[in-house]
Design brief:
By secondary structure, the protein is mainly beta. The chain has one helix at residues 159-162, and strands spanning 2-5, 11-14, 16-17, 27-28, 37-40, 43-44, 55-56, 62-64, 75-84, 92-100, 107-115, 119-125, 132-135, 146-153, 163-167, 170-171, 174-175, 192-194, 205-206.
Length: 207
C-alpha cells in the first residue's frame, strides 16, 4: 500500500510494507510524511544490484506492532541489508524492539545500530541489565551496501558465545564493556522499528 503525490519532490512513500511470510506482521509508517520512499525525484530508488529498495531519511520509519516472539526470548537472529549515509556521522539505528523504563532507565528488548564513528552496536536488554556490544574497529564504511547478521543464544556461557555478529560474511570482534549479556532478552512492550534504533537513533540511508 503506497501513499503518493507529485509535489514537491515527485515521491512515492510506503505506508504499509506487507509481510510475505504469511504471519501477518505487516509494517506501517507513523504517517505519510514520515514514511520511507520507494520513488524519489521521480525515479525508483535502487540498490547496488539495481533492485528496488527503501530510502529512509531522518525521522522516517516503519513499525511492526508488538509481537512478543521478537523479544522475551533466549534465541534471536537478525539479518539486515543496508546502506548508511554520512548524516554528520551521528549514530543511526537499523532495527530495534526495545523499551526504556521511566523509573529505572533499564532498557528491555534489543537494538542494532551504527554508532559514531562507524562502529557496529548491539544492545541487549535483560530483566536486570542492559549491556551493549560494539565492534572494536570502525568497520561500517558509509555510503556502501553492507550485510549484517547478529545471533543471540542465551543458552551458551560467556558474552562472546552468547552474542556474535558478522559484517559482509566476516566475523566482527566485539567489545562488551561492563555488564554481562543476559541469558534471555526481556519482553519489551513496543513495536519492531525498521529504520530506527530508538529515540534519536534514526537511519539516514537505504534498506
Amino acid at each position: 500500500e503506497l501513499a503518493n503525490w507529485s509535489q514537491p519532490n515527485d515521491e512515492v512513500r510506503v505506508m504499509t510494507w506487507h509481510d510475505q511470510s504469511g504471519n501477518g506482521r505487516d509494517a506501517t509508517a507513523p504517517s505519510a510524511a514520515l514514511a520511507p520512499r520507494i520513488v524519489e525525484g521521480g525515479r525508483l530508488v535502487r540498490g547496488s544490484r539495481n533492485e528496488p529498495v527503501l530510502r529512509v531519511s531522518i525521522d522516517d520509519s516503519l513499525a511492526v506492532e508488538d509481537q512478543g516472539a521478537l523479544a522475551d526470548t533466549a534465541l534471536l537472529s537478525v539479518s539486515i541489508w543496508g546502506l548508511v549515509e554520512p548524516w554528520n556521522n551521528v549514530s543511526q539505528g537499523f532495527l530495534s524492539k526495545k523499551a526504556v523504563s521511566t523509573t529505572t532507565g533499564l532498557r528491555t528488548g534489543w537494538a542494532v545500530s551504527v554508532t559514531n564513528p562507524d562502529e557496529f552496536l548491539i544492545g541487549i536488554g535483560g530483566a536486570t541489565s542492559s549491556p551493549e556490544a560494539r565492534s572494536t574497529q570502525s568497520s561500517v564504511p558509509r555510503q556502501i551496501w553492507h550485510h549484517t547478521a547478529t545471533v543471540f543464544n542465551g543458552g551458551l556461557t560467556g558474552n562472546a558465545n552468547r552474542l556474535k555478529s558478522w559484517l559482509d560474511a566476516q566475523p566482527l570482534s566485539l567489545s562488551f564493556g561492563s555488564g554481562t549479556i543476559p541469558n534471555r532478552i526481556a519482553a519489551a512492550a513496543s513495536p519492531l522499528l525498521i529504520g530506527k534504533g530508538g529515540t534519536g537513533l534514526h537511519l539516514d540511508g537505504q534498506i
